[in-house]
Amino acid sequence: QFAAFSTMSAYLALAVLLWLVPGIGPKVAALLFVIGGMLSVLLVRTAYLPMTIANSLPLLGVTAVIGWIERHSLPPLDLLVLALAMAVMAAYFAMTLLLAQRFTHELWRARDAALTRAETQKRFLATMSHELRTPLNGILGLAQTIAADHPGLGADSICDSAREMAVMVDDLLDNAAIEAGALRIRPEPASLADLMNRIDLRWQPEFAARGLTLGLVLEPTLPDWVLVDRMRLAQCLSNLIG
Predict the structure, then answer these.
(1) By C-alpha distance, which of 27, 97, 94 is closest to 62?
(2) How far apart are CA 8 and CA 52, in angstroms?
(3) What is the pLDDT along the chain (242 residues), one digit of tens a residue?
(4) Residue 79, H or E segment
(5) How far apart are CA 143 and CA 71, in angstroms?
(6) Which helix (H) or strand (E) holds 174?
(7) What is the DSSP letter of 48?
(8) Whole-model pTM above 0.85?
(9) I want to staple 15 with a disulfide (CB 3.0 to 4.6 A). Which of 30, 104, 183, 192 is the partner?
(10) Is 226 left (phi over 0), alpha (psi -120 to 50) or beta?
């Protein structure tokens, strides 16, 4: 704030010097300097009130100095015109400053409201994702029982749909965990061929429905067992295939 005050004072010192030069031209130039300083404050500093005040004090000081210097040397009518001009400039500055401050505060309130809504939606999605898991697990368990006891009744399709929905729910939970910085990787021994075959079986109907062919080829040099987070690897491969 001190630097802002000093800079504006040095800038406006030229206005005072110009005003002391005889003639109307230097005085017009001095007023333009003052107006330029006012615009600089209004356009640049209004978002931060202490800096705005620090920049405004030299402006008020210059107008007071100019008025003091000219109080005896100008005719009464010219002095009145000069006083009115300074009053208009001061009123314009104050009005614009208040409007700018009000607009800035409205922007801050809108930003805070948007952040609050986003946080509320994030918590809602995380809560709903957890709540959806309970009925989804029930549907999946019942469909697996029906598929085992009575194959061919469409229970396999129900299982596949439930698994896909479970992946979507997990994606919602993962997104919330990523934003919270709490995404966990749980590696465990897994058969790579078995994992790939499950992904292949899951996507074959989707490819067939689109008239496409999905082929699975495992390099002979790949190990039979790997230490990996099965769900994360399946998500990555499914996203790539999708």
Answers:
(1) 27
(2) 11
(3) 677 667 777 777 777 777 777 766 777 677 777 777 766 666 665 556 666 666 666 666 666 666 676 666 666 766 676 667 667 766 766 776 777 777 778 888 888 888 888 778 777 766 776 677 777 777 777 777 877 777 766 677 777 777 777 777 777 777 766 776 666 788 999 998 888 888 888 888 888 888 999 998 989 898 989 999 887 888 788 888 88
(4) helix 76-149
(5) 96
(6) helix 155-179
(7) S
(8) no
(9) 30
(10) beta
Show the tokens assigned to 157. Answer: 């399709």
Structure tokens at 195: 């994992």
Rounded to an integer, what distance in angstroms lies between the CA atom of residue 107 and that of residue 73? 48
Extract the tokens encoding 27: 């005085």
d(C-alpha 175, C-alpha 134), whole Å = 19
